[in-house]
Specification:
Layout lengths: L11 H14 L4 H107 L1
Length: 137
Amino acid sequence: MPPAPPVPAPAPAPAAEPLAALSDAWLVPRSWVLVVSGLAAAGLLSSGLLWQKLDTIQEELARRATDSSAQSIEARTLAREAQTVSRELSGRLALQETRLSEVSLQRTQLEELIQSLSRSRDENLVVDVESALRLAQ
């Protein structure tokens, strides 16, 4: 038998080296991992604080909305009361104006009556004086 040609041995070493080189190529320095982790933690912390602040602001807005609603109801009630009082006062004013015009008319009539009485008194006095003078003559 002829001698068998020598079979070359597989080279596992070269295949292992590329895997090791490949895995070393994807590794990130530890300082980078710590920086990114710190930034992620800071981001989570700040978003939690912002969320808490947002909740506080929402509660404040809800409280203010409730307060303003109560104030608007109170303002409407006061406006209705003021309107009622205004109507009552307008009625009273109209009544007083009517009474004032009646009193003014009565005063005018009274002044005319006084003048008339004064004239007739003067005329009666003149007539009495004239008759006294006639008698005296």
